[in-house]
Amino acid sequence: MPATTEPSIRGERPAQATALRRVAVVGGGWAGLAAAVRAAHDGHHVTVFEASRTWGGRARTVTLRHPTELTLDNGQHILIGAYTETLRLMQLVGVDTEAVFVRRPLRMTYPDGTGLALPDWPAPLDVLAGVLGTRGWRWTDKLALLATAARWQATGFTCPPHTTVAGLCARLPQRLQQEFIAPLCISALNTPADRASGQVFLRVLKDAMFGVAKGSNLLLPRVPLGALWPDAAVSWLQQRPQPADLRLGVRVTSLQPATVEMPGQRSPSGNGLPSITPHPSAAHSVGRQWTVNGEVFDHVVLANSASKQTSELIQQALAASHESGGHQNGLTNTDAMAFEAIATVYAWAGQRSEESTRTSTDTHSRHLDRIEQMLGVTHTLPHPMLALRHSARHPAQFVFDRGQLGGPAGLLAFVISASGTETGPIADAVQQQALTQLGLRIEVIQTIVEKRATFACTPGLVRPPMQLAPGLTAAGDHIQGPYPATLEGAMRSGWSAGEVKSTT
Q1: Environment class of residue 348 by beta-carbon count within 10 Å: exposed (0-12), middle (13-18) or buried (19+)?
Q2: Residue 64, class by beta-carbon neighbours within 10 Å (0-12 exposed, 13-18 middle, 19+ buried)?
């Protein structure tokens, strides 16, 4: 997928003193708030419509009561150092990015200590040293991975558009495919390697390993997702010289082109006010304005999630404005996109069972003993994040120790990417997986399934365009761009869509 050029907030330009516009943003998720921040930053009057009662969209904070109030996220998220636009936008609205993240070199190690762990060295020396020092891999495995990475770098991290990740990595040893490529792919694209786009996978690798300094670093949130972006963005928007109009619990049901009369023209009502009567040619009229729930705006950003309702709303608007062709074809793709779920199982860690000690291998048992000696009664993990061996019986790919990430001691988060939607079987399977692989009895307190967490990032996927019509843009992690459905993709998309062109 070709890279797109997104505006950067580096070297902020002054707010526009003239030609201020009324901007409507439909959707208060990460992309929508990024669009609102862009428009407000440029000096425009911003109104944000959000149908739910919570900011943040699919990356939001939830509150549980088990048995006391507990603040969690609707899923465990990871950022990486290559998410430069996300970090810059956070800093723009006042977030201390050094304080809200635990930054660690890339680590994909398993409970028995095997797996890849990069040192805190400059790229590409960190990758070279990490691969050569990986426990559990044969020298032939290590050399095969380094040779493959060198080939990818020599070709500019490109491949034919219809290549899957599995096809891309078919020549690698089976162990590397299972223990490195598969978990890396599922965490980055939320799509299994046999169905995932090799092109997008390589783009993520390129940015992480060779794009910016420390681009491969893991950024593990130590605060709820709301504090990372939505809360700070909302506060920033409210404190502008021209405060944004933020409307929670307001669903947009009407999007139409509008005709605005020139000064001196008589409105149909005879009251001297501008006419806002929808008209088929309104997208090409003076001002190219749109009505949202009957209110007139100069620019509209549709930052809703990809859904049938969103497609219908946009199709209605484009049909009324006589826009057709590629834009409408792209929106049809929105309806046709497949989606993957992500499940997060939150659980309290209990004591290690004697049965698991007897049935585990000697190496695994010794490792668990070291964990217990080191951590004592909390029975948490040796690192904030561990990879887990994934199978049909053991669905979780990763486990996070929330006690090391600002949460209560003993709280674990098991992540099942590309999961099913049934919570009961997932929770039961994770309990068994924790017993088998970590030697821990866990008490599941909540299983959260985001059914449409990301689009299925398959080869050759055509994503909806950002530019829909004059004065009408779309934003979201599913909109056309170089990234899979990630927070970085959402933020870049929102920042770009929030720019009000002088021609609108």
Answers
A1: middle
A2: middle
Pairing of strands 467-469, 440-455: unpaired
Task: From 250, 32, 282, select the one nearest 291 (Cα to Cα).
Answer: 282
Q: In this structure, which amino acid lies at residue 190?
A: N
pLDDT by residue, tens only, the chain of 504 residues: 333 333 444 444 444 444 689 999 999 999 999 999 999 999 999 999 999 999 999 888 888 766 667 888 888 899 999 999 999 999 999 999 999 999 999 999 999 999 999 999 998 899 999 999 999 999 999 999 999 999 999 999 999 999 999 999 999 999 999 999 999 999 999 999 999 999 999 999 999 988 888 999 999 999 999 999 999 999 999 999 999 999 999 999 999 998 644 444 333 333 333 333 333 333 333 347 999 999 999 999 999 988 777 888 888 788 877 665 444 544 445 666 899 999 999 999 975 544 444 444 444 444 444 444 444 444 479 999 999 999 999 999 999 999 999 888 899 999 999 987 677 899 999 999 999 999 999 999 999 999 999 999 999 998 999 999 999 999 999 999 988 999 999 999 999 999 998 654
Report residue 244 as tokens: 């944004």
CB 499 within 8 A of CB 24: no
Q: How far apart are CA 337 and CA 311, in angstroms?
A: 11
How far is CA 146 from its chain centroid? 29
- C-alpha 206/C-alpha 216 separation (Å) is 10
Q: How many Å is the Cα radius of gyration of the chain?
A: 25
Contacts of 62 (CB under 8 A, 6+ apart): 71, 72, 73, 74, 448
CA distances from 462 to 335, 481, 487 (A): 12, 10, 20
Residues 6+ apart with CB under 8 A from 83: 219, 486, 487, 488, 491
Q: Where, residue-wise, is CATH 3.50.50.60 in the chain?
A: 1-9+20-91+223-338+459-504
CATH code reported for the domain at 1-9+20-91+223-338+459-504: 3.50.50.60
